[in-house]
């Protein structure tokens, strides 16, 4: 059973104790795919409500094995004022190529036509190993709201190719393997969405500051 009453306290803790001002709701660590659709909606609503005027962004993961469920969650996220939505690839009947994957993503994104859309790339869990670099060609024409990628894979070559292709800086790449974040930053990642920043946010912010100076020796210490 979900406990909505603690979310207000959680938001205050993230902001005041960890200097974390962006959240990713109903993702992997949040066990979103283990919840029913009503529970996911309730959590999304409460995070948006409690994050108002405190958090900069509340991105809701709306991926599901069922396309209609994912579309319903996307429409709901738009209605409650989410800052963005994210979707993983379907993991049972998997897309066989980039065109099938983009077609799936487009059907979800179209239900929230003004909400920034992110592809949640996590092949260790979905088994979908289509390189993100392949997806970038023409994706903006198919999904006008496409904003970027939550890149949760250790394949830094694919990430580097994405960033090289992103010459006009149309997209953002948020890295999702916490223990490799410094390497991803060196390649050009824009930020991170991870499973440890809720309690290691302060140290991660110190690493980001050291990297920006740049003081790589200090950044390595915090990594």
UniProtKB/TrEMBL annotation:
Residue intervals passing through the bilayer: none
| Cellular component GO terms held in the UniProt record | cytoplasm
- The UniProt record lists the EC number as 4.1.3.3
Q: In which pathway does it act?
A: Amino-sugar metabolism; N-acetylneuraminate degradation
This protein's species is Anhinga rufa
| A Pfam family that the UniProt record links to this protein | DHDPS
Q: Which domain of life is it from?
A: Eukaryota
Organismal lineage: Eukaryota, Metazoa, Chordata, Craniata, Vertebrata
Per UniProt, subcellular location reads as:
Cytoplasm
Known partners and oligomeric status = Homotetramer.
Q: What's the family?
A: Belongs to the DapA family. NanA subfamily.
InterPro entries (alphabetical): Aldolase_TIM, DapA-like
Stated name of the protein: N-acetylneuraminate lyase
Kindly list the GO molecular function terms attached to this UniProt entry: N-acetylneuraminate lyase activity
The answer, when asked if Repressor is one of the entry's keywords, is no
The chemistry this enzyme catalyses reads: aceneuramate = aldehydo-N-acetyl-D-mannosamine + pyruvate
Per the record, the major location class is cytoplasm
Supply the alphabetized keyword list: Carbohydrate metabolism, Cytoplasm, Lyase, Schiff base
Question: Which residues lie in coiled coils?
Answer: none
Family annotation (Gene3D superfamilies): Aldolase class I
């Amino acid at each position: 059973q979900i406990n909505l009453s603690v979310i207000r306290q959680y938001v205050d803790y993230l902001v005041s104790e960890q200097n974390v001002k962006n959240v990713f709701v109903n993702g992997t660590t949040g066990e979103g795919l283990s919840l029913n659709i009503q529970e996911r909606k309730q959590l999304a609503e409460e995070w948006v409500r409690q994050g108002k005027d405190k958090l900069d962004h509340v991105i809701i993961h709306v991926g599901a094995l069922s396309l209609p469920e994912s579309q319903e969650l996307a429409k709901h996220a738009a209605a409650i004022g989410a800052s963005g939505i994210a979707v993983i690839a379907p993991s049972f009947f998997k897309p066989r190529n980039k065109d099938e994957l983009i077609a799936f993503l487009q059907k979800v994104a179209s239900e929230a036509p003004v909400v920034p859309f992110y592809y949640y790339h996590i092949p260790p869990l979905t088994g979908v190993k289509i390189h993100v670099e392949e997806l970038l060609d023409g994706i903006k024409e198919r999904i006008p709201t496409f904003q970027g990628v939550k890149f949760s894979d250790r394949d830094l070559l694919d990430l580097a190719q994405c960033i090289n292709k992103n010459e006009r800086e149309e997209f953002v790449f948020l890295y999702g393997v916490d223990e490799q974040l410094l390497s991803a930053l060196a390649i050009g990642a824009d930020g991170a969405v991870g499973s440890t920043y809720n309690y290691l946010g302060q140290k991660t912010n110190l690493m980001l500051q050291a990297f920006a100076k740049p003081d790589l020796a200090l950044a390595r210490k915090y990594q």
